[in-house]
Design brief:
Elements lengths: L3 E3 L12 E3 L8 E5 L4 H21 L3 E6 L2 E7 L5 H6 L9 H11 L8 E5 L5 H8 L3 E6 L4 H8 L8 E4 L8 E6 L2 E6 L22 H15 L5 E6 L2 E7 L4 H17 L3 H4 L9 H12 L5 H8 L11 H8 L5 E5 L7 H7 L3 E6 L6 H10 L3 E4 L8
Parallel strand pairs: 6-7, 7-8, 13-14, 14-15
Antiparallel strand pairs: 1-2, 3-8, 4-5, 4-6, 9-10, 11-12, 11-13
Length: 391
């Protein structure tokens, strides 16, 4: 592998000079098999790769992440899809390997946000996964290796310019890491924490039951939140993130954002959404946008005119009561927070989006009130003692 990788430009096109290298002059742990990644691509690649590697380590399952602007839009492990999810993710017509299922789940968490994503995969990319990637709009992929036919398929994207990175799976970063901000170098110990069963040992709520599926989902949410720009909260179900609240300045806003995305994810499985009949000329990305508009509270007359033109038969809108009745069926959701909850308001909001299991650092002067709120909703609450800020 080369000692440096020239990048197209920095964060923005006017930042012309950009490259990636190791300070000690050693060879890079990654190589470009196709295309030329940019600076932001590398930031996404080098944050998403450890996420999927740690998901693989924590759960033993193939893992995938869909990254946008240095936070996961979705992350998942290979839990089989049911018919409704396969339809909602537009993959019901595809043959999917376990790795492809993981990416379908990661991409399906928030399909609007995942448009033009960076993809990370924990295992060697096989042909079913490459076929799925080939038909989606994305900016590149990182994985430990690629089957020859899978690589050929990916090399055909973007008229041959699609960035394909191979990562050394045995590479370990140094014990300390540094970054330059406004000419000042900051240095810290690398964050090597990976959650395991001990992370979930301190159950403080009245309800103590943590089935294996809940443990898996709490681990998925926690590994995802570790690589999500703080403040952050992630909600997970069935081995995948279903809502992520990133980069908010207050804890409750993290929960509101993550929970609203989880609500949207679940509403996309409503029979009225799955039963939509689009005109054959309407592309998949336009269908995703139309579904999003359908689920909004309000739309302008201009938006509605465009929206209605997509369908053979215009679907009947979902009322607020329709939405609430459907969302009341959502349960068993796992929530992980990158720091403690200072007030019970986050628990109150989470309860409306099916959250049953919560892990957070604890240490607030109001932990007792947060525990009380969890008990009122019958939630299982774990205080981990571990904060996971990521900046």
């Amino acid at each position: 592998m080369a000692t440096q990788l020239s990048l197209r430009y920095g964060c923005n096109p006017h930042q012309k000079s950009a490259r990636a290298y190791l300070r000690d002059g050693r060879a890079l742990p990654l190589e470009a098999l196709n295309g030329s990644p940019g600076y932001v691509n590398l930031l996404d690649a080098l944050n998403s790769w450890p996420l999927v590697r740690e998901l693989r380590q924590a759960t033993g399952l193939p893992a995938a992440a869909s990254f946008k602007h240095v936070s996961p839009a979705g992350a998942a492990v290979a839990v089989p899809l049911n018919e409704s999810l396969a339809a909602a993710y537009f993959v019901a017509d595809m043959e999917l390997s376990p790795l492809a299922v993981a990416y379908a789940r990661a991409r399906g968490a928030d399909r609007l946000a995942s448009f033009g994503d960076w993809i990370a995969l924990s295992d060697t990319v096989d042909v079913p996964t490459a076929r799925l990637i080939a038909r989606e709009v994305s900016d590149g992929v990182i994985a430990p290796d690629y089957e020859p036919e899978a690589l050929r398929l990916l090399q055909g994207k973007k008229d041959g310019a699609y960035p394909v990175l191979r990562m050394d799976p045995d590479y370990e970063p140094p014990a300390t890491e540094s970054r330059d901000v406004f000419g000042v170098t900051l240095e810290q110990e690398s964050n090597r924490f990976v959650p395991d069963d001990a992370f979930l040992a301190n159950v403080v709520s009245a309800s103590k039951s943590l089935p294996e599926t809940a443990r898996r989902d709490l681990l998925v949410a926690t590994v995802a939140v570790k690589y999500t720009q703080s403040n952050s909260v992630c909600l997970a179900l069935d081995g995948q993130v279903i809502g992520s609240g990133a980069g908010q300045q207050s804890r409750v806003h993290c929960v509101r954002l993550a929970a609203s995305k989880a609500d949207h994810w679940y509403l996309r499985q409503h029979p009225r959404v799955l039963g939509m009949r689009f005109k054959k000329t309407v592309r998949r990305a336009e269908r995703i946008n139309a579904i999003d508009l359908f689920l909004q509270e309000e739309a302008t007359p201009a938006e509605l005119r465009v929206w209605e033109s997509h369908f053979t038969t215009v679907p009947e809108p979902l009322s607020a009561a329709d939405k609430r009745a459907w969302l009341d069926r959502l349960s068993g959701v796992a929530l992980s927070s990158d720091a403690f909850f200072p007030f019970r308001d986050s628990i109150d909001r989470a309860s409306r989006s099916g959250v049953t299991y919560v892990v957070q650092a604890g240490g607030s002067t109001r932990d007792d009130l947060v525990i009380q709120a969890a008990d009122e909703y019958g939630m299982v609450l774990v205080l981990s003692g571990v904060r996971l800020f990521h900046h």
